[in-house]
Amino acid sequence: MCNACVIDSVKRSMLxxxxxxxxxxxxxxxxxxxxxxxxxxxxxxxxxxxADLTHAWDSDFPTFDGNPGxxxxxxxNIDKSGYQLYKxxxxxxxxxxxxxxxxxxxxxxxxxxxxxxxxxxxxxxxxLKAKAKDDANAMVxxxxxxxxxxxxxxxxxxxxxxxxxxxxxxxxxxxxxxTPDGNFAFPGxxxxxxxxxxxxxxxxxxxxxxxxxxxxxxxxxxxNSWLPSGRYGIEGLAGxxxxxxxxxxxxxxAPKHKKGTGGPARVLAVY
Length: 271
Hints:
Elements: H1 3-16, H2 18-21, H3 24-39, E1 50-52, E2 70-76, H4 78-81, E3 85-90, E4 97-99, E5 120-127, H5 129-134, E6 139-140, H6 142-152, E7 160-164, E8 188-189, H7 191-199, E9 204-206, H8 221-226, E10 232-235, E11 248-253, E12 262-264, E13 266-270
Parallel strand pairs: 5-7, 6-8, 7-9, 9-10
Antiparallel strand pairs: 1-13, 2-3, 4-10, 4-12, 5-11, 11-13
């Protein structure tokens, strides 16, 4: 499916769901937020190591629609004024960034409304590299979650569950986004997997790719179910090789602009 067709499909899906989201999304978000906060366990003590899970970001960084995610305009010149600053034009969903519930629902939580307690989470990392090596559109499935639990124990309530597909290493290449013939191709979550994580009271999901859904998704099933449920996602994570599968705590530096559907974030893990 062409990129434009996928985007048109998303628009139609969002419009068709608006009556469902009106009112209900806001109520669900409040219930979920309260539940996640009250269920939060003690965070991992760690050893004092810090990993930056954020890509450095400029106008060349790949984006979903192919347009620059940030543009710089000199506002004050240091030679003329003795100091310097830039005017930035930023698109919310670029670089390492947050998808807030409002991104795929009419009345969901905006990024500034995500409770602070849900931005500090136990981090669980699912290794997806072997699957992604053989399939560019590999997905985290329920079996991958079950295997993680078998190896590492229960996923804590309020956790961030992220996958490491190795895609962050491709960020400077066309393969981060597309196949040679121009079709989207990158790993993501399956809806079955995120439905399972929702029953575990997980606060957010994270990817090292452009999207929560795999590149070949035509319906954005994960976006259309996970986000309207009052949970959030993180896309474009970096540095997941540096953190353990369990035992780290993630600090999500989400932006706080009103009515935001998401935005670039500085994401740090302490372990």
